[in-house]
UniProtKB/TrEMBL annotation:
This is Uncharacterized protein LOC116287822 isoform X3. InterPro entries: Ig-like_dom_sf (IPR036179), Ig-like_fold (IPR013783).
Amino acid sequence: MSGRLMSAFIDAFNALIACSISWWHIVQKVTAIAKSYSHTSSFRGQTKMISLQSWVLICLVSIAAMKIKDSDASMPATLPTQTVTSGSTVEIKVTDDAGTKYRWCVFGIWNADDINPNPWLSDVNNYKGENEVEVIPGTAYDGRVSFFGDLNVGKAWFRITDVKEEDSNRYKMRCNSNQGKFYHPVMELKVLPDWSSCKDGFQYKLVAKQDTCYECPPYNVKIEKSETKRKC
């Protein structure tokens, strides 16, 4: 049995166990609440039991409470587009807002027809809690992709150094949480030339700066021409 098939089997088994445990907690919680309401109340010598409508309401509230607890883990579906100049370092950081542990996460280029990144650029295995990183060889990103997050606290953080114009693409992660849930964050990267076009015998170095316009989001970037120039 291949490693991936074994991992899929383990994920399915763990999900089944987690589901069984969740329902057991629901039954326990509903039973406890029902007992507290099932005490009879005397009214003119008559006994009044909890109504069917109240019982259904208790069940729904209890199930909703468990569902809210189970859905704490969350990763954003999309990240803001990053615009940089050639030669820059790009950090693609996805953070679980509940700090949930993740079992594994793969990172790579995304084509809309694929659920997985294709090709993969990096694979992080965290079943043992050790963030074991494998950088996929044989791509144009050799030596430029690294992982610097921590899946134990929901930080799926990857870095690409010395980006090139041809690195302009959509990037995707596929991450599996400790609760057996899958997340597929996507980010678009735009890499612009780091030198202006030739004019009057010179090219000017271009730099990416944060746009400080009124109410601009922090990820807004504008490209400015610096004083550094070269002959062309």
